[in-house]
Amino acid sequence: MLRATSTFILCTYTIQSWVAQTLRHFLAVLLPLVQHYKYQSLLLPITVLYRRLRFHVLFSASVTFLIWNFILFPYVYLVAFRNKPSQRQKFMRWNFSFHLQQIHLCNIIFAYLNTVVYDHLDHRVSMDTMDLWVASFCIWMYSLFYLLILDRYGIHLYPIFSPRSHWGMALSGTLIWGILYLTFLAWNTWLRRRHF
């Protein structure tokens, strides 16, 4: 069995969300330094990447938070370990461990703070369609990685994305893009209301 500390965990969407957020935090630290020391050749690419990761970070943190805490955690606790009290206790200890709370609970808090509250480097009131395209591209890249690499090696992290079922792929694909667009609308509405 793979341990939670193994490099395998980097394959999960949750950790990919954490990595994108860490990258955006790093760029937020790097951007003032680049401006101060006048590295003009680096300024534009860093600024563009920093701004365009905004919605992707919000979306991936939102999805991770909502799906884990309101779908997967209750399902595993109530259904999968229904008649296994010792397994249920182990699962509860594991779920409320420091590491799991960081990636399933604090991730959304950090994303909100980084993209909404303390986003002094990005002065846009709301996000535009390019932000939506960047988040879509990131999802496409992760989907290709999942289907072409993980699935081929028999690693089925998300059974709903099984390519063996045409209806399953069509339904899950439609669901993903629908959630992406609704999340985009929701965060943009929140940003506009917060600004005014």
Strand share of the residues?
under 5%
Main beta sheet: none
Q: How many structural units, i.e. domains?
A: 1
Which descriptor suits the 3D outline?
A: globular
Share in helix: over 70%
Poorly predicted sequence stretches spanning 5 or more consecutive residues: none
* Structural class estimated from helices and strands: mainly alpha
Report the C-alpha radius of gyration, rounded: 19 Å
Give the total of beta strands. 0
Q: How many alpha or pi helices?
A: 6
Give the overall average pLDDT.
86
Order of helices and strands: HHHHHH
The end-to-end span amounts to 51 Å
Give a summary of the structure in a few sentences.
This protein is 76% helix and 0% strand. The chain has helices at 13-36, 40-80, 85-95, 98-117, 129-150, 166-195.
Give a description of the structure:
Helix content is 76%, strand content 0%. By secondary structure, the chain is mainly α. It has one domain (7-195). Helix 1 (13-36) packs antiparallel against helix 2 (40-80) and helix 2 (40-80) packs across helix 4 (98-117).
